[in-house]
């Protein structure tokens, strides 16, 4: 018999096993709805050196209840919950290495949710300005990125025809632009993609750079 079972008297162990055998398996497998718990959680970082938090909370609850407002929020003691403390890996592995291995790569890409503009978004790590110069994309950008610089490219002409900025998501901004092209509104982008031999199939966009310090207009 293993050492952990040696801690129990044989009779006690047999009694518990017999009780378990008598349980109805069908009842055990039935879904049991969980009781709603309105107790407020008190989350603390775990440490071997912590005192008995449960005891402290119960002792000090009367002090807390001296305030009517606190008595309303904490009619019963809060649930004590412990979060994990830093382990050896957290201490030894530097943040820059975590970023190196887990940080999203730079580039422009569709959002992956098959939204209305995903088919128009180029999967690339760089973009070309209207001057023909190539620029690297900083950050991981997609259809749902807000407050960014973007470029519009014509596949037929193989060049960037427009660089713009928006405070909205690229999705919101491009839905307006694509609608303008379809309805032949009067602007430079619409004019280009409605020229002879051009269609919306030639329309491509690249999320070029996101700005956090400056809020662009819509």
Question: How would you characterize this protein structure?
Answer:
This protein is α/β, with parallel strands linked by helices. The protein has two domains: 5-83, no CATH class; 107-210, no CATH class. It is built from eight helices and nine strands. Strand 7 (146-154) and strand 8 (159-169) form a beta hairpin. 13% of the residues are buried. Residues 1-5 have low confidence and may be disordered.
Instruction: Round the Cα radius of gyration to an integer and report it.
Output: 31 Å
Beta-strand residue percentage: 15-25%
Low-confidence stretches at least 5 residues in length (pLDDT < 50)? 1-5
Q: Strand pairing plus helix content: what structural class?
A: alpha/beta
Number of domains: 2
The largest pleated sheet is described as:
3 strands, antiparallel
Number of helices: 8
Describe the protein's topology.
Blueprint: H1 10-21, H2 25-29, E1 41-45, H3 53-64, H4 68-73, E2 79-83, H5 88-92, H6 95-102, E3 107-108, E4 126-128, E5 134-136, E6 140-141, E7 146-154, E8 159-169, H7 170-182, H8 188-193, E9 203-210
Parallel strand pairs: 1-2, 3-6
Antiparallel strand pairs: 4-5, 7-8, 7-9
Key descriptive features of the protein:
alpha/beta; 218 residues; 3-stranded antiparallel beta sheet; disordered N terminus; single chain; 9 strands
What's a concise summary of this model?
Helix content is 31%, strand content 22%.
């Amino acid at each position: 018999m293993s050492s952990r079972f040696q801690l129990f008297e044989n009779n006690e162990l047999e009694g518990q096993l017999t009780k378990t055998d008598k349980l109805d398996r069908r009842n055990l497998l039935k879904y049991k709805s969980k009781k709603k718990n309105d107790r407020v959680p008190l989350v603390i970082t775990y440490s071997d050196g912590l005192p008995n938090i449960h005891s402290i909370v119960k002792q000090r609850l009367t002090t807390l209840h001296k305030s009517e407002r606190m008595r309303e929020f904490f009619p019963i003691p809060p649930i004590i919950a412990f979060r994990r403390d830093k382990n050896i890996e957290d201490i030894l592995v530097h943040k820059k290495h975590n970023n190196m291995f887990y940080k999203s790569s730079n580039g422009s890409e569709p959002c992956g949710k098959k939204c209305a503009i995903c088919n128009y978004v180029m999967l690339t790590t760089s973009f070309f300005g209207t001057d023909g110069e190539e620029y690297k994309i900083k950050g991981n950008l997609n259809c749902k990125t807000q407050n960014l610089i973007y470029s519009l490219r014509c596949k037929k002409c193989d060049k960037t025809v427009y660089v713009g900025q928006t405070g909205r998501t690229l999705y919101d901004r491009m839905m307006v632009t694509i609608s303008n092209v379809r309805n032949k509104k009067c602007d430079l982008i619409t004019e280009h993609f409605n020229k002879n031999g051009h269609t919306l199939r030639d329309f491509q966009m690249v999320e070029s750079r996101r700005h956090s310090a400056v809020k662009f207009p819509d």
